[in-house]
UniProtKB/TrEMBL annotation:
Keywords for this protein: DNA-binding, Transcription, Transcription regulation
Name of the protein in its database record: LysR family transcriptional regulator
Matches recorded under InterPro entries: HTH-type_LysR_regulators (IPR050950), LysR_HTH_N (IPR000847), LysR_subst-bd (IPR005119), WH-like_DNA-bd_sf (IPR036388), WH_DNA-bd_sf (IPR036390)
Species of the source: Pseudomonas helleri
GO cellular component entries: cytosol
PROSITE patterns: HTH_LYSR
Length: 312
């Protein structure tokens, strides 16, 4: 059986696009050339790889097996070429990693800025998503690592986690809000206004359930983007939540106010982040991945980012 990587790339494109036309466009081939490549691959493996009787061209059982291996092989070949290029001192490789929405609002973009200053020829692709999706893409070898909440991974031997510094979450409102000039507010006062927040991190959900007394608590506006949520807060009487790792307060230019909530103890663990760097156990990271991680950790320890440095 002879299979080349080019054919595997074409099959991955077909499986993702579920269309010969769209798949061909994805890999910059004519439809006829793309179809011949898929047919040649099917001839090599001795069976159909997609069900042509279905409109969505779903992979056959054999196609599903091949697709799983194809993704690993293509990813491995890319990483091999990437590492060799990096070790040759060209510093022009490609780095792909993932990031949760919260670290993507300040810490990680700043670290990337420093990184490309050191490696101006490198290409960086980072995908912002929730930790479940990031985990799947890590295990499928699309990413070398991701930055997100580490709670689900710390005890799992399939992963290696490197914790970042815990940073505090703050309730906040716009300047001019009825609660803005109060030294502290009660939970009842806080919850009497609409909430525009993310409850994805389990610690935030715990805090909000505690304050509301309702296990089925749901905010008025929910979104994973800190900047989008703060735009809602700045244009309404909604209450938001922002972490000290974020640049949101910096860009708000003094128009956001932190709120002190009577019922929340300052040292409460649930008020702090638990973010870190997650990679696969037993997998060597490329030189560029190691360099990016070092930039993230160095910046995280430098106190040059974060709400603690802004007087509001």
């Amino acid at each position: 059986m002879h299979i080349d990587l080019r054919q595997l790339r074409h099959f991955i494109a077909l499986a993702e696009q579920r269309s010969f036309v769209a798949g061909a466009q994805t890999v910059n081939l004519s439809q006829s050339a793309f179809s011949r490549s898929i047919q040649a691959l099917e001839h090599s493996v001795g069976c159909p790889l997609v069900d042509r009787g279905r409109k969505d061209l779903a992979p056959t059982k054999q196609g599903q097996v091949l697709l799983e291996h194809a993704r690993r092989l293509v990813s491995g070949a890319r990483q091999m070429a990437n590492e060799i290029s990096q070790f040759n001192g060209l510093e022009a490789g490609e780095l792909q990693f993932g990031c949760g929405p919260a670290p993507a609002s300040g810490l990680v973009p700043r670290a990337i800025g420093r990184f490309i200053g050191r490696y101006p020829k490198a290409r960086v692709q980072f995908q912002v998503d929730d930790w479940q999706s990031l985990s799947k893409r890590l295990l499928s070898e699309e990413f070398e690592f991701f930055v997100a909440d580490t709670r689900q991974f710390e005890a799992d031997p399939a992963y290696v986690t490197q914790r970042l510094r815990p940073r505090k979450w703050y309730f906040c409102c716009r300047t001019g809000h009825p609660l803005a000039n109060r030294g502290s507010v009660s939970a009842a006062e806080l919850l009497s206004y609409p909430q525009a927040i993310t409850i994805r991190p389990p610690n935030l959900r715990k805090v909000l359930v505690q304050l509301s007394g309702r296990p089925d608590y749901a905010p008025n506006v929910e979104c994973e983007s800190p900047f989008s949520l703060m735009s809602v807060v700045l244009s309404s009487d909604a209450i938001g939540i922002c972490g000290a790792y974020s640049d949101v307060f910096l860009y708000a230019s003094g128009n956001l106010v932190r709120l002190q909530v009577d019922e929340l103890a300052e040292e409460q663990d649930a008020l702090y982040t638990r973010y870190g760097i997650v990679s696969r156990a037993g997998v060597r990271l490329s030189p560029l991945a190691q360099a990016m991680i070092e930039h993230i950790k160095e910046l995280d320890n430098s106190d040059v980012c974060g709400l603690e440095n802004f007087a509001i």
